[in-house]
Design goal:
With 382 residues, the chain is mainly α. It contains 15 helices and 8 strands. The strands form 3 sheets. It has a 3-stranded antiparallel sheet with strand order 1-2-3, covered by helices on one side. Strands 4-5-8 form a 3-stranded antiparallel sheet. A hairpin with a 4-residue loop joins β4 and β5. α12 packs antiparallel against α13.
């Protein structure tokens, strides 16, 4: 608060400025200014008057709470800096959720939570459907809105609201799309062409298909991780492109990948290529940037095969092992899968559960029976 004297047209006048800030939320503040006051005494009176008005407005805004944008900011700060209450331990996961809500609830940002209705929530779900987002992604958006709303209510940042606007809204089931995958014939054609053309990504693609390792795990793989004598690769670490550092594997534990005859042959070839280096696989600028899917898609399209992302090579590895009757638990152990739901998808792709189920059906007539019946018809006498 201040009273400022200034000159205008040869006259001495006064200006009053009032600025009050909330103790509840520092971003809630009210400013008032009044000019052209003739005397200092009148300026003092005006200062008292507009201060009362400012405090009254501040109280009203505190009662209503901050905007949805502010709630998101407070939640984000709490998750990143408060380890005891933070739901997400990975800062980049919090970044993803924060940006996701800022993007898909953009029309809410300047509104207070008490003004956001169930109808507004349904519009967000409808927009996600129009954008072709998967059911799992829509559920993720919905659940994250619920988490942030409940956090705001629990911490008294959200007033006059006791439940999230998306609470109870059902997400329509989406069509069960067939996942992108390469079959055995396509895998063989893919690797044949890649090797024939001496493609720089060939050893990386082959390693992915023969080990089921993730891109970050392959990137971090070193020669001392490969025990050629015992024919085992120890997967102990992974490269995180976002933090630009080596960390543990996604599953959080190390595992062994057996070296098959084909993988052993590939490793022998790689010895001549990268044997003098620390890292087992050759590097590329695209891989350094985390852009490993682009060259794969371009190459597959160029040779007339389905376009798949790099992570799909891992799915191909699992599907082929399951199709060869390798136990699901072994596949999960080798590949570092923890979610059995993912394995169930691969089982469906491999057709393991259905294989042989219809072999007992005997409906079609044999050629011999049919031919015998024809002969009888020709020998028929009136």
């Amino acid at each position: 608060m201040s009273i400022k004297e200034y000159q205008e047209d040869g006259k001495t006048l006064f200006e009053v400025y009032v600025h009050v800030k909330s103790n509840v939320d520092p971003l809630i503040r009210v400013q008032r200014r009044k000019r052209n006051i003739k005397t200092y005494k009148d300026a003092v009176k005006e200062q008292t008057r507009i201060t009362k008005l400012a405090l009254r407005e501040l109280g009203s805004r505190e009662e209503k709470g901050g905007t949805w944008e502010r709630i998101l900011e407070l939640w984000y700060y709490d998750q990143v800096h408060n380890d005891l209450e933070g739901r997400y331990t990975n800062k980049f996961t919090v970044d993803d959720y924060y940006k996701m809500l800022c993007r898909y609830t953009k029309t809410w940002l300047k509104r207070r939570p008490c003004e956001i209705t169930r109808g507004d929530a349904k519009k967000v779900i409808e927009e996600l459907n129009k954008l072709g987002k998967s059911k799992s992604f829509i559920v993720k958006v919905k659940n994250t809105i619920n988490v942030v709303f409940q956090w705001g209510i629990d911490h008294r940042h959200i007033k006059d609201v006791f439940v999230s606007p998306v609470q109870g809204i059902k997400v329509d089931k989406r069509e069960d799309k067939f996942p992108e995958i390469l079959n055995l014939t396509e895998i063989r054609q893919f690797l044949f062409e890649a090797k024939r053309q001496n493609h720089p990504w060939y050893p990386i693609w082959a390693m992915a298909l023969l080990t089921g390792m993730r891109s970050g795990e392959l990137y971090a793989l070193e020669w001392n991780d490969a025990d050629l004598e015992n024919r085992i690769i120890r997967v102990t670490k992974s490269f995180n492109k976002r933090t630009n550092e080596i960390k543990s594997t996604k599953a959080g534990y190390w595992r062994n990948v057996p070296i098959s005859d084909e993988l052993n042959k590939l490793l022998v070839e790689l010895k001549g290529l990268t044997g003098n280096q620390r890292h087992l696989l050759p590097r590329s600028k695209q891989w350094d940037r985390g852009d490993q899917s682009r060259p794969l898609r371009a190459f597959l399209v160029g040779i007339g095969l389905p376009s798949v992302k790099f992570h799909t090579l891992r799915a191909c590895f699992a599907t082929q092992l399951l199709a060869d009757s390798v136990e699901m638990t072994k596949v999960m152990k080798i590949g570092g899968w923890k979610d059995i739901k993912t394995m169930q998808i691969y089982l469906r792709l491999a057709g393991v559960d259905e294989r042989g189920a219809t072999n007992s059906l005997r409906f079609l007539p044999s050629d011999e029976a049919v031919m015998g019946h024809v002969v009888e018809l020709f020998n028929f006498k009136k």
